[in-house]
Structures are given as C-alpha cells and as structure tokens.
Backbone:
C-alpha cells in the first residue's frame, strides 16, 4: 500500500510521512516526488527562514493559504498542484502547533493545492503535536529501520472519505534511481491466538463408578414418557408470542363487586 | 391543579424480556404543562428529556438527555463513531422539528447537515428484536430442548438494552436525509474559518463561538425573551471536536497548554447558557489527543453527561475473538443527578457498541461460559470477572447443550 498512497488521491488528500532519528524518511519523500510529480518548483525557506538577509524568496511566515496560493498562481500552468513540505518540523519550530494545524487544514481545503505531502520528524516534537497532525491526515506512513537488515519497515494507514480504514506493513528499500522496491508484505500484526484443537478429555472415563449407559439402558431412557411433554401442535401454540404477554384473565365470581368505572372520576378538586 | 392519576400500562413487548429495572410506567396527567414535540418528562426525575437519536444510548444515560444539560462524547481515534453520534443527534432534531445549531472548525455545518442519516419513518415502532438470538419457533427441531422447551425462544443471553416505551427514531445510515426534510429544519451554523479572517489565536475562537450562540439563543427566544405567542421549541446544539488544534487550542498539542483554562471556561459558560434556555448540547472532544489527564477530568466534571467511545478499528483488538461482533467499547463516565440524589443506570458497566445499517446498538459485553477445561482464559482485568457474573442465560454458546 506504500505506493498506492499516491494514487487515487482525491482532492483534499493529506499524506503524512513520519520518521525518527533511526531511519530518515527523506529518501522515501524524494522517491515520492520523483514518481508522482512532473515538474518541480522549489521554494527554499531553509536558508533564511525569518528573512534576516532581506532578500529571501520565501520565509516561514509566508506559510499561509494566501501566500502559498499567490506562489502557485505565479507558476505557469499550475493545475493539480501537489505541495510537498520537507520537514514540517522546521515550521513547527517557528509557529504555534495549533496555528500550523489550522494552516494545514486551510491548505487542504482551500482548493489551491490538490494534495499535501508532509514530512515530520517525530523525535523533535511532543506526542500531542504529532498526534494532532496525524488526526488531520488522510494517510499516514511511518518508517522505521528494518529488523533483519533487509531494508526499512513502513506502516501505512489510509483513511477513505467514507470512513474505511486500511492498514498495511511492508519492508521496502529505495534504489539508486529513487524507485521503491517492496520486499515483503507483513500481514497485519494481530495477536497470534492459539488455535490448537485439543482432544477433549472425556470426563466419564477413568472413574470408579459407571457413568455410561449400555444400549438397552439408553433405549429404556428414551422410551420414558416425560410429564408435561405436549404434542408438537400444542407446543408451538404455546410458544407463539401472544398479542400481549401480560394479559390478565379474570372472571369475577358471585361475591366480587367488579365495577369497571374508575372511582376517581367523580372527584371534583 | 392537575390531577395526577397514574396508570400503569403493561408493556407491549414483542418477545424481548425486560430487565428488572425498566418500567413501562407512564404518568397520565391532564396537565397544563407546555408540551414540546420530541420531548417528554422523564420517569425517573421528572425532567423534560429529549432523545439523543440513538435509543440504546438513551437507555444507557438514564432515559434520555435532559433539556438544559450538556452531553460530552470523547471521540474515538479516527472520529468516525463520535461523528456518527453527532449526526444522529442532529437528525433526531430535524425529525422532531427542533432547531439546530452546529459549530465546527473542520467541516462546514451545511456539509454536516447534508450528511445526516435518513429516518425510517414508516416503522416508528421498535425494529425486530435481535434476530440472531431468538431461535425459530420449531418445537421438534434438532436443537430443541425436550424438557425446558418453554424457554426455547428466549435469547440465550440478554444483551440488548432497551426500555419498553418507545422514544426516539431509527435511522438508516446508508442513505442521507432528503434535502426537503433538511431544509424544513431551521439551522444555524458556525464555521470557524468564516468567522475569523486570520488564524485565530485561542481563546478568541471560543469567545466568538459563545457570543454567537448567546446571540442566537436570545434572538430566537429560547431563553424566554420572546412573548408567549410563539410556540416553544428546543434548540439542539452540536459542537464538533472542541479542544482540537483547529479551534486554535493547543490543549491537544502540548503537554502543558498555554491557555489551559480556555476550554473549561467555554464549557462553564456553555452550561450556564443551557441552564437558562430551552436547549440541549452535544459536544465531542478528541480526548485521545489530550495529554494532560487532569485536564480531561476537569472537562468531564464540567459537563453533565459524559460518554467515551473506543473503537477497535486499527488497533490490535480488532482481531481479538472476544470483540468480533462489535465495533468498539462504550464507557459511561458520568451521569448527572438532576434534582435527585441518585440516578438510575444499567447495572452492567461493560458496554460495547455496534453500528449496523439501521441501528446503533449498545450491548452488554458478555463472555460465553467457558466449558472446556484447557482453554486458557484471556484476562482482561475487571472485564472478565464482571461479565461472567452477570448475564449468562440458561443456554450455552456453541454446540454444547445444557438441558435440565
């Protein structure tokens, strides 16, 4: 599912790539860029994020819907734009995490970009921050070093618009030309519950008294007529749920004074 | 003064058995109380209650949601079922003719209104009781009991929770509500990106929400400000995902939020507004993102009724055979004591929910009796113990057939 994340993204997709210090997700990000995109426009806010030199093209304060939209409009023939952010962690250093979430949501919904792909270094932030950004994402890819030295492990979670959730775990490696090879697909790591069919121990064996029936005894038992055993029709008649399960059938006899009227009716308070 | 002659009506149960603490008692009163469509007085404490849209949730929180109170729903991890509960709440408002107020920072309120499930209007009566558990009425089949045959049609374990009198409607999740029905309902919306041009720092977003809500309540007369000629109605308020980062609140982002009191102040003000008007509110909060547990406790205290959802989707519990029939667990964290000392709740605290197409069911989680000696018991702490004591019936799961 690692590669399907890029395909079939309807408008408003937000792909989050999470990595840690043990394995960098930048290679995977670069491979996504090379496979999915046709033309690359690069806006550098890394060398001078706060605009101190005075002539930087893009500063971190311009990470808003309006400024990104103007940037996109400036590029010729821009349609179906994918916004790739190499490392949201640097932006989170300068802005409040709640504000960053709001801006990401605005970009996701604003219509200026079709897809947003974001890389986040989870070691650099608090769990709540990473959790809040994950909450906004439609697909999350978490990369970690592989255990057997084959490559890295990627856990992908995809959420479709209808609310369906798909999860996958795969080992992959990235080649020289930035293409991704999937080595193996690990099935979803469920708990391995033990499904052994154990032969059940017969409790009537190995006793000092006899609990089993011989054939004649069994036939005699089955021939016995039990009390309150009704015929099939009477049983099914009794088993039908009546119109009301709590009917009270009452026949007043001679001594009862059963008056149907409510005695409270002539109270005049 | 109205005579309060009471009348007990025997419940028309269609084959399901009631547990001992539900009652079919209905107060008969020739009253001069104003009756608002979609509401009724509670049998437990006399408060005016409305349905949450999900009849099993109504049962679990004590009959319904009292007008003037606040229901908190702690969201599940991917906000799927809590969003569904919000939609049920609003759909119930549309069907009963109440007015709606929807606030969200993520989706536009009109999008939420368009996604409401469609009501099953021809069958206001309760749907068929849980069919998987009632056996067919065949006295001589191979599974029949020969001595205890009168109990044959009873469900093996009574898991469905229901009260006898019907209150609330059922909805079909696969269809959305007709646009004509939606438009017939009056709806006020608050979409945060529209209200603030720039990214709003907190707590301005909450203040704006509260002010807007107060203005709507006053203008439409829910607090009694309009003269009596207009017939009374209830305002249903749905607030989606308060406390999330999209409201500008860093409660979910930081371990030590910079304005830790903003959400609690909002809830306090909201409850004051609710108590002084004919309105009822449902608030969802992404509690799984909030790192500070003490804060979550404060938030729960400030709401009247609190319910937490935990869905199995995407977690390792999805493959656990114990949970295979359900979509998640539901935990009732708090129920209010409104004008009374104690409140009446279902006795079993282990509840699980399942979203079916026509019903959102909440059932008691039960373990089947363990008849084999060598099966290892999966330990769940208190869960196994409490469930085993409770509700196994006179039958048994599987092929074993205990007849007595």
Residues:
């Amino acid at each position: 599912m690692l590669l399907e994340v890029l395909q079939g993204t309807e408008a408003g997709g937000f792909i989050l790539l999470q990595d840690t210090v043990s394995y960098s997700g930048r290679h995977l990000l670069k491979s996504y860029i090379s496979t999915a995109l046709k033309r690359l426009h690069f806006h550098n806010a890394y060398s001078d994020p706060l605009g101190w030199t005075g002539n930087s093209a893009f500063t971190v304060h311009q990470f808003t819907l309006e400024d990104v939209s103007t940037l996109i409009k400036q590029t010729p023939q821009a349609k179906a734009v994918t916004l790739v952010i190499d490392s949201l962690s640097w932006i989170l250093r300068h802005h409040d995490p709640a504000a960053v979430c709001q801006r990401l949501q605005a970009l996701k919904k604003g219509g200026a970009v079709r897809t947003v792909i974001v890389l986040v270094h989870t070691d650099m932030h608090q769990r709540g921050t990473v959790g809040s950004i994950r909450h906004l994402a439609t697909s999350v890819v978490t990369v970690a070093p592989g255990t057997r030295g084959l490559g890295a492990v990627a856990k992908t979670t995809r959420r479709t618009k209808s609310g369906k959730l798909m999860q996958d775990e795969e080992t992959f490696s990235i080649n020289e030309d930035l293409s991704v090879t999937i080595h193996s697909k690990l099935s979803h790591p469920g708990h391995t519950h033990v499904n052994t069919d154990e032969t059940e121990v017969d409790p009537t064996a190995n006793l000092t008294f006899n609990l089993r029936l011989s054939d004649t005894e069994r036939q005699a038992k089955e021939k016995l007529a039990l009390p309150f055993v009704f015929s099939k029709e009477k049983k099914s008649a009794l088993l039908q749920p009546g119109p009301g399960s709590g009917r009270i059938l009452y026949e007043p006899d001679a001594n009862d004074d059963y008056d149907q009227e409510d005695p409270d009716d002539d109270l005049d308070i | 003064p109205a005579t309060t002659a009471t009348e007990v009506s025997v419940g028309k149960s269609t084959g399901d058995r009631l547990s001992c603490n539900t009652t079919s008692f209905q107060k008969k009163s020739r009253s001069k109380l104003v009756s608002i469509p979609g509401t009724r007085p509670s049998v437990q404490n006399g408060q005016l209650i409305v349905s949450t849209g999900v009849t099993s949730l109504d049962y679990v929180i004590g009959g319904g949601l009292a007008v003037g109170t606040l229901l908190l729903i702690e969201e599940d991890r991917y906000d799927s079922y809590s969003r569904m509960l919000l939609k049920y709440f609003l759909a119930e408002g549309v069907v009963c003719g109440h007015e709606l107020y929807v606030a969200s920072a993520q989706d536009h309120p009109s999008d939420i209104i368009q996604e409401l499930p469609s009501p099953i209007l021809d069958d206001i009566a309760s749907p068929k009781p849980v069919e998987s558990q009632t056996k067919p009425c065949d006295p001589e089949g191979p599974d029949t009991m020969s001595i205890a045959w009168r109990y044959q049609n009873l469900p093996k374990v009574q898991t469905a929770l229901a009260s006898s009198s019907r209150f609330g409607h059922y909805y079909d999740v696969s269809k959305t509500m007709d646009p004509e029905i939606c438009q017939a309902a009056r709806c006020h919306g608050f979409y945060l990106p529209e209200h603030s041009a720039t990214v709003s720092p907190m707590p301005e977003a909450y203040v704006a929400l509260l002010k807007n809500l107060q203005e709507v309540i006053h203008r439409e007369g829910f607090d009694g400000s309009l003269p009596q000629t207009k017939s009374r109605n209830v305002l249903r308020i749905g607030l989606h995902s308060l406390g999330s980062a999209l409201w500008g609140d860093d409660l979910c982002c930081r371990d030590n939020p910079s304005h830790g009191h903003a959400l609690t102040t909002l809830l306090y003000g909201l409850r004051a507004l609710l108590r002084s008007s004919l309105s009822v509110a449902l608030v969802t909060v992404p509690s799984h993102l909030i790192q500070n547990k003490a804060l979550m406790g404060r938030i729960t205290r400030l709401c009247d009724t609190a319910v937490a959802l935990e869905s199995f989707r995407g977690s390792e519990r999805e493959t656990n055979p114990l949970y295979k029939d359900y979509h998640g667990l539901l935990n009732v964290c708090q129920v209010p004591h409104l004008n009374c000392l104690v409140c009446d709740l279902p006795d079993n605290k282990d509840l699980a929910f399942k979203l079916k197409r026509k019903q959102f069911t909440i059932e008691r989680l039960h373990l089947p009796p363990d008849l084999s000696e060598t099966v290892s018991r999966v330990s769940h702490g208190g869960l196994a113990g409490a469930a085993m004591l409770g509700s196994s019936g006179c039958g048994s799961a599987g092929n074993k057939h205990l007849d007595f």
In short: The longest strand of chain A covers residues 165-174. Chain A has seven helices and seven strands. Chain A touches chain B through 48 residues (CB under 8 Å). The first helix of chain A runs from residue 26 to 36.
